[in-house]
Fold these 2 entries.
Entry 1:
Amino acid sequence: MNTRIMVIAAIAAALAIGVLLGRVWTPEQGSGSAEEAGPEILYWVAPMDPNYRRDEPGKSPMGMDLVPVYAGDEAAGSGVVAIDPTLLNNLGVRTALAERGTLPRKIETVGYIGYDEDTLQHVHTRVDGWIEKLATTATGDPVTKGQLLFELYSPTLVNAQQEYLAALASNNAVLRNASRDRLTALGVTDVEIRRLEKERKASQRVRVYAQSDGVIAHLGVREGIFVTPATEVMSVARLDRVWVLAEVFERQSAWVEPGQEATVELDYLPGKRLSGTVDYVYPELDPRTRTLKVRLRFDNEGETLRPNMFARVVIDGSVIDNIVHVPREAIIRGGSSSRVVVDLGDGRFQSREILIGIESGDRVAIRRGLEEGERVVTSAQFLIDSESNIDVALERMESMQ
């Protein structure tokens, strides 16, 4: 009886031990099979230094966790790097899609406000003489049409007046007409000639009046100075219309043409945009700045726009259709080539050389090297690109050994 009880107890104990061992052994076997099914880890590498490699997990000299390099990653293509998701999050990597569509040739540039040269009046004398009385004494002074600008003493004009008075006294029509024409040719106005005919007395000073409203844009004389016909006494400009002279880069010079829409913003008028059109494109570039000058014309009611004000100008050029384009910030510019970092997914990135086209606003056209729908890195791409270049260099060194 006791023997039977002992046998039964031994069998029960053996069953219990077998069940326990089965429960413990089964997960380990499952884990081992999962490890065998997963990719093989070749080595561990520092995230910021591909030359620092170890056979087991640990810390890099910078205190960062080493990341595994799996078998097959080296065959994914030249310039491909794998980055741990935690490190990607810490770096703040952002990406954007390469899109296909229309891209306007938008020109963003600067310019300045200038006088409308069509309204500019240059004042010269037609004889030698002296400025006896200068009515306007400073640049920027306003003038109105018919206002006295200055009085001129000239022996030549005095003699011409006396000759005309003699012709009037002689009753010789031919001589009178010739003398009158000479006064007109010397710049004497009809008002002064009528006064001379009425008073029959030569004036020692001839008055010069403004021909239009405006301001003194340039004053080249002072009272008492001797002037000749080559002397620019002053310039009078109107302010009811002004020019905006914008400077376009040489690479964008083919995009602009008369009639295109444009907007202008000034610090003087924050939040306000002035709409206009391109009035004229100058035929040559500035030899110093290598820019093309473009002219816009604006009405200036209230004279709020003043010459030499700084302006930001946007010109809407023609549109390019069916072109792949990416954000400007995704481009890594080199000395002879440009690159982007392409997100291949699963933490893998590739530095790829591209051929860029036009730049419009914050977008850049891609002519070769990138397809529609691929995702490019727009932040921290310089760190990824540098690591990719190091890996490519190491591959070349290993292949040479």
Note: The domain at 106-116+239-318 is CATH 2.40.30.170 (Elongation Factor Tu (Ef-tu); domain 3).
Entry 2:
Amino acid sequence: MINSLLLLGFSFSVTLPGAEPKVHLNIPYAGTKNERQMLDIYTPAEGKGLPIAFWIHGGGWQAGKKEEVNLKPQAFTEKGFVLVSTNYRLLPSVTIKEMAGDIAKSIRWVHDHAGDYGGDPERIIVMGHSAGAQLAALVCTDDRYLKAEKLSLSIIKSCVPVDGDTYDVPLQIATVEERRANIYKKKFGDEKQQKDLSPVTHVAKGKNIPPVLILHVAGHPETDLQSRRLVAVLKESGFLAKAYGAVGKTHTTINSGLGEAEDKTTREMFEFLAGLLKK
């Protein structure tokens, strides 16, 4: 019955067995019944005015789903966050630019309805893994996406991209072998589009770009290079930015382990966010 309700686009609430978070599933955010334009919300049992962690799944811009949150719902709600996990339309149905537009629409919905779920619409943390990391960083640097939804970057209090490799798309294409370079070109388009979809392109002094913590696999030649590149560009323009290399992790486990009590990457993330939210 639940699966049928999800497919039909109904929203309902349940409480996770043996856990405190309340779960609100399959909520449309763009006025459609398209399952790729729906989000899930996980909330603590009680509380108001809570910061919102907005999660964007990975999958190479052509796969992935909002249900792939692993331990994040329990971990974030225990820390006093509302967690939102969003879907977005995928290749080849839409372009990456249109995906970023979906993310902005999802943030717009969350901003408008935050109070209904105990969240603070002015304290949103945008996060994502892999392709979701690129989308998170893009929406947090290129303010045109939120402006199209009549929002400002000022509502975003932090950006936490996780192990992305396309903060500078032309650099990534120049770095990898020809076969993979051609795949990126097919996904991102020509050189003008590649640059426009690169978060580094849109960093400029005077913008409301939030503090950024980039989590990446330590020593990985591509995500390490891309992380250092974005951090350097942000710092050059006077923004708070930090990269944390996770030792002993893979592209998969840095994501799946995010939320584990003893996970060093998780502790680094929550310490960073706690420092910002105290301010």
Note: The chain is about 40% helix and 20% strand.
